[in-house]
Amino acid sequence: MKYQKIREEELKNKVGADWFSQFDTTEIIGNIDFSVFPRQDNLFGRTALLWAEAKTGNYDVPAMFVQLILTIGKARTFDKTLPPAFLGAFDFKKMAFIPYISIQDIFYLNDFNWNVTPSNHSTKEFKLIKERIEAILKQKSYIFDFQKDEKELATFIKNNVAKATTANKIKIDKNNFIPIYLRWLEIVKPNIDVNWDDLKKANIYDNDFYLADLFVDDRDTQNIDDDLTIRDSLFVVFQNQGYKIAKEDLKQMFDATIKFKNTETYLQFWKLYKRPPIKEFQDYIIERRDLLAPQDIRERKGAFFTPRKWVELSQKYIADYLGEDWQDEYYIWDCAAGTGNLLAGLTNKYNIYASTLDQADVNVMHERIEHGANLLDSHVFQFDFLNDDFTKLPQSLQDIINNEEKRKKLVIYINPPYAETGSTKHKESKKGVSNETMSHKKYFAKMSTFSKRELYVQFLMRIYADIPTSKIVNFSKLKNLQSSYFLEFREVFQAKLEKLFLVPADTFDNVKGKFPIGFFIWNSEKNQIFQEIIADVFDSESKFIGNKKIFSYNNEKYLNDWLRPNWSNIKKEIGFLSCNSNDFQNQNGVFIEVEKKNQTSTYFKPIGVSNLKESSIYFAVRHCISADWLNDRDQFLFPNNRWMTDLEFQNNCLVFTLFRNDISAKSGINHWIPFTEHEVNAKEKFASNFMTNFINGKLKIEEPSENTLFENENSGGIYDNQPRQFSAEATAVFDAGRELWKYYHAQKFPSSGGVSEGRGGYNVNASLYDIREYFQGRNEKGRMNSRSEDETYTQLLGDLRSNLKILADVIKPKIYEYGFLKE
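Given the sequence above, the corresponding structure tokens read:
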């Protein structure tokens, strides 16, 4: 075999030198193993010709392509750089190619988990992709043996890969029109000869020019005119080799044709893509023009699109609450309508009103009316809800708002923007979001510094104050219910919360976080300060998965308040506990380190003998329950006193902490080793036996001095110096951990701390983290590998984690019983 018995890096170098010497194979794209670029930049900079997966050994071709596809999809590399014409895969024996366009649809699978490990062949995602591409590979792939097909491979590279930039045009669909837009911003926009600041003042943006480009017919690219498929709603159209402003009230201001600085640049760019977009996606692209808004505009508006499944579910909940004839009995106003998708499915157009900030969105809704949308032209209008006076509303809507009885029949149905402003020590303000609105100024005294920053809160406040007794039904985050910063808001906004359902935030466009978004039904005729509610919960597939009680935390003390008195008198530290904010979304910010690396951080608190018990409880409580999208905003609280007499709970938390932390002995003296040297057959004496002495009640009580490690009553700390008794579950964790430590200390290590076979030298004071690092190693980016090739180690670590999970399950009920969390 041509490349037998060489490492992967060497294989990639040899393949690059032997087959792609006329190209540049040195550039690294994300986690893609191998990339091929032309040596010379073209008009569009550096566009890859090939992305490939590399494997040592004799590998299955479909499996190699699956791993490459998962690698690309996980990082969404195609969003960040123009994809190549070919994908490839090679091992020591063969190389295969497939046109990228043949498999690009896979990257836009709905409800697909791209976060799996690409190299894990056992996941359902790996198997699903493999099933999808095997038939494609049989028809579209080209496979060459490095030795048997040497001439054919060289010819293919010369005639295909080398000319890949002129391969088939990429079709434009709902999945790729945004990445193409990002590329258009780099290449075409700078070439348009226009003053963008002047256009921006007239509310015309670069995305209007992009849409004009999309709706051009490539069958006549040299003589493009406006008698083809151009949408009436476009503000800009392509005409006579340039752009014309189509917005009626701006034609006089921008009456000349806007030309290119270099027409060839424009034509070369659009040679890559087939225009207009695929017919079945044209309506979608026009409707979703909001996704093309410039980043600063989108951030200011906090824009995103409500998924149809949640629209339908919200309307079902409204009908359940107001009655099945609610659309005939109530008026409906979406005052943050965007392009109006929240109103889809409603039937009585005479009772529906829709307003939005941008005239472009109003135009889209008017166009949708022409194509059958169930709305009235006169009921769809431009209105800045946070700034404009109600006298600007249609008279029929004013009549409803100004009539007390009709107002009780008005449903404000919105998915308002979630943008936020206001500087804190953690982030900068978004200029021009909420501190410039009339609502911000009007309700300044009624809202706290934090709550007034949220645009959606400003919507709620104006509705509650200026449209009293109306029904408010809205999508939003849960800050207004749960955050301590919103206490003043809850005291002012006293509409009764009648119904609430929760869904994952990342099912909404432009939302990446793992947290809940709620749909709220408020009755502002009833006054009630929110305390708690039982919410219905739906997963990303819109399946009902149960209920969750949501609390206000109006008069609560928090977990950090509980621990604070226990770190004030620590004289000698055995470590530092990072005490991040009191909710699940900050769970990763709770950890222990031997030495305080960040000397300026206020999060790191000292751990000594006098507060080890409380610190362990804190750590275990924060980590026994995994963070997920649903508990993301739940708060950890100041507990009741019942934990103080529960020695088993205290000791279980200690054991959990000992075997769950990521302490490293490389950072300083490791006082956290849970075993003696004799128990694990260590080759040398440990630098510290603090933890086993603490467990066995053998700490020496000394008078305080500069070198005293352990506090006692005289040095400001109090601890009980008694042997710990452990539960069966905690003992099982000790037993599993002991076997793992013994296996580590039994290894044959290189002398003098050297390196052998990719593994570090012997560290007698190794922590669990250090042991994992030794067996699992690190990749080329310095990250610890997720798995080890040592089967014995893998089994021992699995046993430890399994027993630790059982211990966590024992601790969890006590977390709620003692009030660390509300259930």
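The CA atoms of residues 43 and 683 lie 64 Å apart. Try to locate this feature in the token string yourself.
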